[in-house]
Design goal:
This protein is mostly helical. It has helices spanning 9-34, 57-66, 74-100, 112-134, 139-165, 179-205, 228-231, 249-278, 283-308, 313-338, and strands spanning 174-175, 345-346. Strands 1-2 form a two-stranded parallel ribbon. Helix 4 runs antiparallel to helix 5, helix 5 crosses helix 10 and helix 6 packs antiparallel against helix 8 (249-278).
């Protein structure tokens, strides 16, 4: 049972389910991309004109006649379609939550606008999923699609918190100093995290993860010859097939090296921010202090493992998912310090 001002139980349960599914979608999406299966189905939303991957010899022959330039690879096709099945289930659940929220929009503190924003986000993600295929893995779209998945997960996590707070008194933040300085720290931390995730997505979508094959230098050089202008050219031609990437070695090294440098910068910043959070009297801030340091440490080690062991698929997928967890954690921390329901008290 819930109180008159509490969140409907079915909305909370569906939101929790959607959060679990979006984690699966992020993992499956990165697995598909890193296994070079992003074009396992050359069309969208089906696969060679069907809702399942061609299996029999007759089905494969028919599929090949429809798409003569895209040889049928059953295993890669199933990777892509399973990812789409999960994404479709996620979209359906969010649609139900968004439509059902109209009946509760006048309830005190009900996050009605939040549910509608979430629906818009998942529709946009569907469009990015279609463009990823029809535009042949254009790096700009692939990177935006990655970000969209992380944002969707963050919106669901915040929605779950907002629903759990309905009908309850929320403890104000207990702080030792002014909230202004803490907000600047957390906001800058989020911006640095966003920059690092963009670099990681851009590196992956341009197949630059192995542009530097050793540590800590890059192919035996501390500062190799790099082409930053080409590496970060956001006006790449729309039309070619970008599977495998089209940039030259110098451009890919520029992306890879900058990703490494920003990782070090982010790590130093998060360490200092974590110290600031740990010194606050509020246990929630100390919790985030520990979580952020733990997540970044794991991410850093996974990044090193990717280079040392030449991008093993499970490690690369874990690194991608770790980025999502770090992003969601930074969003939740910022929500905590900026939320009007946690206006601080000072000791």
């Amino acid at each position: 049972m819930i109180g008159a001002n509490g969140a409907p139980a079915w909305v909370r349960k569906l939101t929790l389910l959607a959060l679990g599914i979006v984690c699966c979608v992020i993992i499956l999406g990165s697995w598909t991309r890193l296994a070079d299966a992003g074009l396992g189905c050359p069309d969208w939303p089906g696969c060679y004109g069907s809702l399942v991957v061609p299996q029999t010899a007759a089905e494969i022959e028919q599929a090949q006649s429809l798409y003569p330039d895209s040889p049928v690879e059953v295993a890669k096709g199933w990777m892509e379609m399973i990812h789409r099945y999960f994404a479709t289930a996620l979209g359906f659940i969010i649609l139900v939550v968004a439509l059902g929220s109209w009946g509760y929009r006048r309830r005190l503190n009900y996050p009605f606008k939040h549910t509608q924003l979430l629906l818009l986000m998942v529709l946009l993600q569907g469009a990015f999923g279609a463009w990823t295929v029809t535009w042949k893995l254009w790096p700009q779209v692939v990177t935006a699609h990655l970000f969209g998945g992380f944002i969707t997960a963050s919106l669901l996590a915040v929605l779950l918190i907002r629903l759990s707070r309905m009908g309850r008194e929320v403890r104000p933040l207990r702080l030792a100093h002014s909230i202004g300085g803490l907000r600047i720290w957390t906001l800058l931390g989020l911006l640095l995290t966003v920059e690092q995730i963009f670099l990681g997505g851009w590196m992956s979508s341009n197949y630059a993860a192995m542009a530097c094959s050793d540590l800590p230098a890059c192919n035996g050089e501390w500062w190799p010859h790099m082409n930053f202008a080409e590496g970060f050219n956001l006006t790449q031609t729309l039309g070619p097939n970008y599977l495998g990437g089209l940039m030259d070695a110098e451009a890919r090294k520029a992306i890879h090296v900058l990703h490494r440098l920003v990782a070090v910068l982010l790590g130093c910043y998060l360490f200092l921010m974590a110290l600031k959070l740990w010194r606050q009297p509020d246990s929630r801030l100390r919790f985030f202090s520990s979580v952020l340091i733990l997540l970044f440490s794991i991410q850093f080690c996974l990044g090193l493992a990717n280079v040392y062991w030449h991008l093993p698929l499970p490690v690369a997928v874990a690194h991608n998912f770790g980025g999502a967890l770090l992003f969601v954690s930074m969003i939740l921390l910022n929500y905590l310090v900026f939320s009007r329901r946690t206006r601080p008290s000072y000791e």
